[in-house]
Write a structure and sequence with these properties.
Elements: H1 7-21, E1 25-31, E2 36-41, H2 43-47, H3 51-54, H4 59-63, H5 66-70, H6 73-84, E3 86-94, E4 100-111, E5 117-126, H7 128-163, H8 166-179, H9 183-213, E6 222-225, H10 226-244, E7 247-250, E8 258-261, H11 263-279, E9 286-294, E10 297-304, H12 325-330, H13 338-348, E11 352-356, E12 364-371
Parallel strand pairs: 7-9
Antiparallel strand pairs: 1-2, 1-5, 3-4, 4-5, 6-8, 9-10, 10-12, 11-12
């Protein structure tokens, strides 16, 4: 069995092994002026120069690209290390044959016992593969962003085009209703008006989501009590809930819940969330709106006993055109726009929206979160002692 080396001998052996055996890291020692005095590790493999060709040459002339030399980056790298003891850079370097490699690494300033600078150690690693991969991701990101902008433009155009035939259809239904008063005609007119209304809402949603995601919507923020806003939504949608046969209830706390909202935009959020709860809750089910406060946030939870959401779909539930299969079965005509509008409106308000569900047929919970209005004085956490 080989005798263990003394600590000092082992340390030197390990350092010598690193300098001569590493296949990934180029280790280059420089004097205080930036000239190569040692060419170790994988320096020859990575950069192509033998030690005899590299020693004595300035690191800028040896490794840096012409454009980086023109900008003074070879001197800047050493100056940063001189002042701050260490410099880290990712940049192109030149090999002996003129090809370029993407190098990640660092330069450390080395000082003697009196603190005087005696040189630098530059450590480099070839990460051209990582650079290529990153650039590929950036190109894919740019492509997706361009495709997304084209989609928004298409939605905006489609929304406009859908609105054009609605007025003639609405007028035709009105004329038909006036010319014929029999029951069959009335049913036909009701169907036409209902479908025109559905098309109008769809067109408005298409245009709205394109404006929101395109950043073309400004908010008119005003103080409001979230309790009153929630109660107003319940009042507006109560007839729809009765027709469906579901119980719709608002459970209000005693104290005010001050927020700053754009009333019209926030109404969109609640109409979407509560409207969906009514649509996807079977007759005999229940829906609750529960405003509350948590720390510096004001919350409104919309809970139902409806069809629930597949947990695998929850991460995508607010994406544009995303629809859970059970929801498609109930309403095949939906496009998955409403929840995307909700997310964008909440982000504009500086808030957020979250969805939770235990799974199919186990109901769902949507929580909108807004910052507490700091402009309204708050009651003390507890009464002062007498």
């Amino acid at each position: 069995m080989q005798d263990p080396l003394a600590p000092g001998t082992l340390q030197r052996a390990l350092i010598d092994g690193l300098l001569t055996q590493t296949k990934e890291y180029a280790l280059v020692a420089l004097d205080a002026g930036g000239r190569v005095v040692a060419w170790c590790g994988a320096a020859e493999t990575l950069l192509g120069h033998a030690a005899g060709e590299a020693i004595g040459r300035h690191v800028g002339e040896l490794l840096f690209t012409p454009e980086d030399r023109a900008k003074g980056f070879h001197d800047h790298e050493l100056e940063v290390a001189r002042r701050d003891s260490r410099s880290e850079d990712d940049r192109w370097h030149l090999r002996k044959d003129g090809t370029r490699i993407w190098v990640t690494g660092s330069v450390d300033a080395i000082r003697d016992a009196q603190g005087q600078l005696i040189g630098f150690v530059k450590v480099m690693r070839d990460r051209s593969d990582l650079h290529t991969w990153t650039k590929g991701l950036e190109a894919e990101r740019d492509r997706l962003q361009a495709a997304h902008q084209r989609t928004l433009q298409f939605l905006r155009t489609l929304g406009h085009e859908m609105r054009n035939p609605m007025a003639p259809l609405q007028n035709s239904a009105f004329i038909l209703e006036k010319l014929h008063s029999d029951e069959k005609t009335r049913r036909v007119v009701d169907i036409i008006q209902s479908q025109v209304g559905a098309l109008r809402r769809l067109a408005e949603d298409l245009m709205e989501v394109s404006r929101l995601e395109g950043g073309k919507v400004g908010l008119q923020l005003e103080p409001a009590d979230l309790r009153e806003v929630a109660l107003g939504s319940v009042t507006a949608l109560q007839p729809q809930a009765r027709i469906k046969g579901v119980a719709l209830e608002c459970i209000l706390p005693a104290g005010r819940l001050p927020v700053r909202i754009d009333a019209d935009r926030f109404q969109q959020v609640l109409l979407n969330l509560v409207g969906n709860a009514i649509k996807y809750t079977p007759a005999g089910g229940s829906i609750w709106l529960k405003p509350t406060q948590e720390g510096d946030d004001v919350l409104l939870r919309v809970e139902d006993t409806g069809i629930g959401i597949d947990p695998q779909e929850l991460p995508r539930i607010f994406d544009l055109f995303s629809r859970e299969q059970a929801a498609q079965d109930i309403d095949p005509s939906g496009l998955g726009i409403g929840l995307a509008v909700v997310r964008e409106v909440m982000q504009l308000h500086g808030g957020s929206v979250q969805a939770r569900s235990a799974g199919r047929d186990k109901g769902s919970e949507f929580t909108v979160r807004l910052p507490l209005d700091p402009g309204e004085p708050q009651p003390p956490a507890q009464l002062p002692l007498p």
